[in-house]
Design brief:
36% of the residues are buried. The chain starts with a helix and ends with a helix. The protein has helices at residues 4-13, 45-52, 57-67, 151-168, 171-183, 187-209, 217-234, 240-267, 276-308, 312-336, and strands at 24-33, 36-44, 68-72, 75-76, 78-87, 92-100, 108-112, 121-129, 132-138, 144-147. It has a 6-stranded mixed beta sheet with strand order 5-6-2-1-8-9, sandwiched between helices. Strands 4-3-7-10 form a 4-stranded antiparallel beta sheet. It is built from 10 helices and 10 strands. It is 55% helix and 21% strand. The protein is elongated.
């Protein structure tokens, strides 16, 4: 059993190679003024072409109004026009739909059901109607949204779920947290490390989303992968000099991960007036996901330590090598792509 456990866990970990991020995103901005409503949508060209790569422009224009609908008090808004263009230089497909609503009284109801055949696709909507504004996250299980006094709670839940999903299927972030857990000798050490990581990535998530700081993904994504490799290698050296620098080192790495977290909210093009709820609840979702990982994995490491006895340090080394190997793979992939 002692020899089997490490290999079983490696078989669970290694399928993550090559798919550090699997959450796909598109975004839009919907503005309603009186009876007129204009809906501007943006999606990555690669995601768009998975479903529409062979479709003609006429077919695309006929399909979108079937999946995107507006209504007021149960009465459908009349679809009027659609403009469509691809911009390969920006890796973007953009659509502009215009509607005429039957009345400017009553809350605007929005139907969004366009996920490009991908159950992991999420759509981030910013909607402005007169003096009201809100944001919402659509997914295949949530395709309806109403802009009303109750819409704030729906937006909170949507961004909370988005943050939770982002870390639970963001395997590079998970591996970094696993390396933190494996490198902690005591509960006290783990608390300090997780707190340091949380504080750091919360700072850069806020600053980057507010556009106070900016670094391109071509720099940040390889740096995240490199942080996984470096943290795993540092954990090989359990001496006191190394332990003394682990908290500040983790803080520095956390600053980099926060920049990576911020790209989702940046892609939604949410400006200052709409940022509070997305920023706070997305970050809260990330923290909940992180705590879930710690709560599930740390007791397992304690059990494995008791089970393996003196051989635990070899098991720990095996896991750290596996994590470093995957981090190196992602680093090379991101640098060379």
């Amino acid at each position: 059993m002692k020899k089997t456990l490490p290999w079983l866990l490696c078989l669970w970990i290694f399928p993550w190679i090559g798919q550090a991020h699997v959450l796909k995103l598109s975004d839009s901005e919907l503005r309603r003024q009186g009876e007129q409503a204009v809906w501007n949508l943006r999606v990555h060209l690669g995601d768009f072409d998975v479903k529409f790569g062979r479709a003609t422009e006429a077919e695309v224009k006929a399909y979108f109004p079937q999946r995107l609908g507006l209504s007021v008090q149960g009465k459908a808004c009349e679809f009027q026009t659609i403009d469509f263009q691809k911009t390969p230089a920006q890796d973007l497909a953009a659509l502009k739909l215009s509607y005429r609503c039957p009345s400017d009284a009553g809350p605007l109801q929005i139907h969004y059901d366009l996920f490009y055949g991908d159950p992991n696709h999420r759509h981030l909507l910013k909607v402005v109607a007169g003096s009201q504004s809100s944001s919402f996250t659509f997914d295949p299980g949530h395709t309806e949204f109403e802009l009303s006094s109750e819409s704030r709670s729906a937006a909170m839940i949507g961004f909370l779920k988005l943050g939770l999903e982002h870390i639970l299927i963001g395997y590079d972030h998970i591996l970094f947290v696993l390396a933190l857990i494996l490198g902690a000798r005591r509960v006290k050490d783990l608390v300090w490390l997780v707190t340091s990581f949380t504080l750091a990535h919360s700072i850069t998530l806020a600053l980057a989303t507010l556009e106070i700081i900016a670094l391109p993904p071509k720099i940040v994504e390889p740096a995240i992968a490199a942080s996984i490799v470096l943290l795993s290698l540092i954990d090989f050296f359990p001496g006191k000099p190394i332990r003394r620098v682990m908290v500040p080192v983790t803080f520095i790495f956390g600053l980099v991960h926060g920049l990576g977290f911020s790209y989702i909210l940046q892609e939604a093009h949410l400006k200052a007036g709409s940022l509070v709820i997305p920023l706070v609840f997305f970050n809260l979702g990330v923290e909940i996901g992180q705590l879930l990982i710690v709560a599930l994995v740390y007791p397992l490491t304690l059990g494995l330590k008791r089970l393996a006895g003196g051989a635990y340090r070899y098991v720990q080394a095996l896991f750290l090598l596996a994590i470093a190997g995957m981090g190196l793979y992602w680093f090379l992939e991101r640098v060379l792509s």
